[in-house]
Amino acid sequence: MRIVTTSEAADKPASKQARIIHHLKTRMLTGEMRPGDRLPTRQALIAAYGVCMVTLQRAMDILRDDGFIVTRGRLGSFVADAPPHLCRYGLVFPCVTTEQQVSGPRLAHLEPPSRFMDAMAQVAMAYADDPAQELICYMAVDRELNTPGYQRLVRDIQARRLAGLIFLHPNSSYTPGLLAGTGIPSIAYGYGHSLPGSPIFQTDHRAFIDRALDFLVAQGRRRIAMLTIAVPGDDMEAHFHQAAAARGLRTGIASVLGLEPQYPWWARNAVALMLNQDPALRPDGLIISDDHLVPSGTHAVLEARIAVPDALMVVAHCNFVSNAPSAVRVTRLGFDVAGILRTCLDRLAAQRRGEPVPPVTRIAPVFAPETDPRPPHKMARRLAHSR
To answer: pTM of the entire structure?
Structure first.
């Protein structure tokens, strides 16, 4: 599917109504007309564009419905105080696999359900109303499947109804040319992929391992194991061994087990194998580095009847505000999703101001008491639904 950018569309023949919309909107986008500025009178606009009142009114209605202008009776029409190109941000979610979609070949652009995505959605939904800014969630966005969410995203981009975009899975939702010529800034969550010319943000999993090890060592733990996600080309296992050695710990090949994220229930078997050792050799510290593995992994600890935290201390990954259920007492270490969203919005605002933004923003892990206590309404964003 080829996406026609706004700049390309502007070069094509358009109706008088469309030309009015394009011209007035361009004046707002370039800053010639700023929030609160009064538009010329209806009579002046009719004369300037050579149209009838009906054509002009239809154009003005569209600009009003899209949030660019407001009308104040006899006072006239004004640029909105919070127009969408300055105050409306989009959070782009990918399609996810479901049980009903497993019957056929698994498509590479479909993602398994993710606690991280769920936490992002929870934070967005918890944002209190703020008439000055909006946060729109585009759900189930997939360019190959041309989903309704993707079509809505394309329409809003072409209409310049966005101040910035946060792509949570750009492989499924972005295509070259999607943002070309629009001036809409973006940031993407990614590791092995990124958007051309767009910064990315990453949760720092190496720092997660380092902080978990430091915590366990401070608690007197010497035999530490890690349950993690198996990712091709990932160096987390090597980093764990190196970081453990730097802290005077000895680890072996059985100290780290990796599982496919699609099958988290196997964490029960993996942890059972780790703990099925002589007490002198058995781990006294366990790091579960992905929250999908926490429920089944901690259930295995419970079944092993090992005293927690005396004989075994568990550090469990978490995406705050969404805590994965745990069968035993754990220390939660992870990433403040509300803070991640604030950081992304700050990066987008900096791009719009023309300020330099680092190509990669790494999000540091935090323990539960270290998360930002500010309620969502202090973040000055608002959840809305795309048109």
So the answer is: 0.85
